[in-house]
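Section 3.1: Structural characterization of target chains.
Under the original work plan, the team committed to producing a structural model for every single-chain target entering the pipeline before any wet-lab resources were allocated. The record below documents one such target. The sequence was received from the expression subgroup and is listed exactly as submitted; it comprises 559 residues.
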Amino acid sequence: MKSVLFATLLVAACPLTAFGQTANDLLNAEHTPQNVLTYGMSYSQQRFSPLTQINRQTVKRLVPAWSYSMNNNTGEESQPLVYNGVVYITSQNKTVAVDALTGKAIWNTPIDYPSDTTRVVCCGIVNRGAAIYDGKVFRTTLDARVIALDMKTGKQIWSVKSGDAKDGIAMTGAPLIADGVLMVGMAGAEYGSRGYVEAYDPNDGRRLWRHYTVPRPGEPGADSWPDHAANASGGSSWTTGAFDPALDLVYWGIGNPAPWNALLRRGDDLYTNSILALRPKTGEVVWYFQTSPNDPFDHDNITSIILADLTIDGRPAKVLLQAGRNGFYYVLDRKTGELIAANPYVKVTWASGVDKETGRPKWTETTKKAIAYTDQIETWPHITGGTNWYPSSFDPRTATAYVNTTDYGMKYQPDPVEEIKNLKPGDAYRGVKITPIYNADGMRGHLRAIDPLTGKSKWAIPFKSPNWAGTLVTAGGLVFTGELTGEFIAVDSDTGKILWQFQTPSGIIGQPVTWEHDGKQYVTVASGTGGVYVLKTPDPNLAHVPPGGTLWTFKLMDE
């Protein structure tokens, strides 16, 4: 009864101003470790925490503080947010506010869906998180709505419809507040949708702009598609961008062209498989960088974008980092989009390298076959990529990125043109046959400590199943992540040695965060198996992993 009373008093005692996050609060998110205010833990999306109480020496005393049932069996990919002693987390069918110290629910707002909603959700019935700003919690839904809830009560303030299942559109990503604008992306390339990034007024849900990621005839980039892009589709934007306030630029990863089969769309297929640098107030594209033109392999360029400062040739450089799904680690000048480095960080056979001057990949003969013929080829990495949607982290002190990688290839064969030429939005836009190729040692993934400028691993821990979870790195010398078999682990960031683990009830596909309250450090993560790998890839290692979502918070046991 005492815990419930505390949660009630917390809400009653906090005036609206205590819930009214300002733009300055979000700008300073990385300097307020008592809160987790944004997706990625700061606008840079480094997922680095300066907290040190939980460290290499003390992590052995880490124990559960509480767990909360999400009452959901479809998968928990969300990143928790923490503000003023409250944890906010989304699932595909609800948004929840939980007392950060006790795990007691403060409010729980369900989401109801039309019966046909999941028909165009290709890769898991999930949601990846929320945004908080000015007393509101913002999220997207599987049926392509954008919703604002009251932070204190969970009551809906506004809801707007962005897209429709009949057009192949869904939403799973976390929104981003940038310069007072609410930005969101969408999913649906696998169902022939035309991708876009858009922005809303967070006060009333009024749409401010929409930027389509594939053109129409007469628009820039249309000549990179057949028929001047009259029927171009793809270019989903289903993960969350990063924001550089000093440059007033939001960087958003854009996904693959549709269908995967490239026989009917020869050309670069702009602006798919690109990074777009946009003005948040207007949607103006300042620059773009395309990683995989005319992609036949679903090298969906939506992996997390990290903003960092590096020293290159003895000079400071403001850069953008991305472990591309295509297997190359990219370093770009984030002001201009100029390529600084691009090197493989996993086994790559589809390209022999990336041209430093043009940024274009150097196709191997097998890739040239895949784009022009229906022959079966072997290529690495698999369509799941060298990594996937789950975000990586970056330690600015050591300039090291911590990436969960997938390490297997595929046999790939395009279907004949006759089988794909009549596709329409809502149909499955694939048109290929794929068989995985696994390593002889049975290891399908690694957690890697990567030098962004070389792509080389300082250390790598192998796993039988790839880790499908985000990583978190701390100044305490730890990397936190989760395994598909349910272990939540802490790894020495310098050596790769696993120092601590805790078995959660289900597989972990969530995104860990850390925060402090009254001088005590906590770590929070969601457990609950699901997502595209679990749904689509046979894996005997996961045969006995049960579904079921829970939210966990850990603290140090008193000595």
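The chain is about 5% helix and 35% strand.
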